[in-house]
Amino acid sequence: MPLSRRGSGSIALPGGQHLAMHTRTQDEEPLPHATKSHIKGLWPTISDDLKACERSTTETTIAYIQSNQETLDAGLETPGQVVPMIPTFVFGWPSGDESGDYLAIDLGGTNLRVCLVTLQGKGKFEVTQSKYRLSEEQKQDDGQKLFDFCAESLKTFIDTNSGEGGLIQLTPGEKLPLGFTFSYPCKQDRIDHGVLIRWTKGFGAPNTEGKDVAAMFQRSLDKFELPVILSALINDTTGTLIASHYVNPTTRIACIFGTGCNAAYMEHIKDIPKIKDLGLPDKADMVINCEWGAFDSFEHEHLPRSKYDVIIDEASNKPGEQAFEKLISGRYLGEIMRLVICELIDDGILFLGQNTYKVEVPNALDTALLSLMESDPTDELLMIIGIMSHFFALETTLAERQFLRAIARLIGRRAARLSACGIGALVGKMGYLEDGCAVGCDGSLYNKYPGFAGRIHEGLIDIFGERAMNIRTHHAEDGSGVGSAIIAAMTKARKDAGLYVNL
């Protein structure tokens, strides 16, 4: 293809690769930056698509929440739904008196984390942990190799913390209960079993989907002869709910807003028709892992998608899937921003005469950079100068920087308000509005993105009015570590008491 006017282009090679080509205007000439008048005229045009999505989020809130609730109910009624509403076999709330030493391992979207959790009762605990970075190659390599890496990392952790003076002191033959946090949709028919429905968060390890990941992990544990008992396979959102309730008993819902997005809540057994055949008592309760990132997948009938969202979906490793997640999760917000920038470059508006190839690389703009742009406290937006210069070798005018910050705010605000709609659907479904409840929230967006928590609250007020004051979001406890350990303790106590021992 010919070189573009933004000073870059690419040529398709026979093998399918693309060779980047870059040109530069004469360095001695001043760079023709966009002016304030350019940007002022540009703003209504380029942001209309995203603004329309935000407006429709408010205008159609009631219809959206109703359709969301109908989707949740369908998932409870029938197996195999798009939003699967997975029974977790975590029965009831923790007592708060759980105690003892438990191991937890968390296979997240970015890191593998291994924890030794000492539960002390009365909502107190201590955690010792190590993190191991996951490479993109490991995420796409054979599934059994991935679990071997998990087991090998657990062995390293145990060996490091054992021996004289170590935190782990085991008698011969003793085994520690292990909670495995596996934060991907699984079909479970007991708490130590789970068939992977589909990978999310950019994972694509072959020979894993449709298989029991607990059994695969157990083979890896046996391979390294580890002194553990795999007591529970849980989702991080399930763990977040239990850990948050352990510390704050008013917590009724837990949400993750990070690399992915999800929610969990406690449902009445009588309202889960698809597990009626288990013969469980109607008065019992069980945590439901919603996997709501899949809401409106495939059909795309309800969510307000912009043209940028469509591009991201079509270019993803799972086109059509995880529609809700692709609008609000940290994995995608930076890419939305990058697509806006690239469109302006194509239109000859931004960075004229500069080499823009660095910003044209897919996923080159991390969501963390968006949060820095939003939080830039300086009049001249010096942080944005640094970001664009350091990461993309681009010079910017003040007008361009102001525009970039405005777009970043729009993208972040839309994500937070859509997240509020998801919370609103669960609050309405369970009737928590009048008496109120706490919602434990975790993930990098909620914890680190400027204003995200406040914007969720604004969205809840738009939905419920003043009654939204009864719904309090708060920073959740460590679900993937502490929550996993608490669930391992609850499971051990339940089975020791002879309750649902086969589940």
Kindly list the characteristics that best describe this protein.
six-stranded mixed beta sheet, 503 residues, 15 strands, disordered N terminus
Break the fold down into its secondary structure elements and pairings.
Elements: E1 8-12, E2 18-22, H1 36-59, H2 61-77, E3 86-91, E4 99-107, E5 111-121, E6 124-133, H3 136-140, H4 143-160, E7 176-182, E8 186-187, E9 195-196, H5 213-223, E10 228-234, H6 236-247, E11 251-257, E12 261-268, E13 285-289, H7 307-315, H8 323-328, H9 330-346, H10 367-374, H11 382-392, H12 398-430, E14 437-442, H13 444-448, H14 452-464, E15 471-475, H15 479-496
Helix pairs in contact: 1-12, 2-12, 4-5, 6-15, 9-10, 9-12, 10-12, 12-14
Main sheet properties: 6 strands, mixed
Determine the number of helices (DSSP H or I, runs of at least 4 residues).
15
User: Termini distance?
Assistant: 60 Å
Radius of gyration: 24 Å
Which blocks of ≥5 consecutive residues have pLDDT under 50? 1-32
Name the structural class.
Answer: alpha/beta
| Helix content range | 40-55%
Query: What is the number of strand segments?
Result: 15
What is the molecular shape?
globular
Q: Could you state the order of secondary-structure elements as H and E?
A: EEHHEEEEHHEEEHEHEEEHHHHHHEHHEH
Multimeric status of the protein: single chain
Strand line-up of the largest beta sheet: 3-13-12-11-14-15
Task: Average the pLDDT over all residues and give the rounded result.
Answer: 87
Q: How much of the sequence is in beta strands?
A: 15-25%
